[in-house]
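Priority: medium. Attachment 1 of 2:
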């Protein structure tokens, strides 16, 4: 079941990226593209954070902490 959840997130990220590219470059609406990436990126980052906490509680350590820190920092400064 975990694999299915990861595929859904992957497709969500690909979908958001595609729509943002169309908004920014096809329709010349970069502000709306940035809003879309920020809002939906924050939601995906929140889901990643919840999974990271579960992983840390189980005693497994990895690059999850570094990855979520990078995602949050990217969203915070608006440089995608």
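Attachment 2 of 2:
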């Amino acid at each position: 079941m975990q694999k299915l959840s990861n595929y859904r997130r992957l497709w969500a990220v690909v979908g958001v990226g595609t729509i943002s590219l169309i908004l920014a470059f096809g329709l010349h609406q970069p502000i709306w593209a940035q809003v879309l990436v920020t809002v939906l990126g924050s939601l995906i980052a929140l889901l990643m954070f919840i999974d990271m906490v579960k992983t840390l509680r189980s005693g497994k350590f990895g690059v999850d902490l570094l990855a979520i820190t990078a995602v949050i920092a990217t969203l915070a400064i608006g440089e995608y």
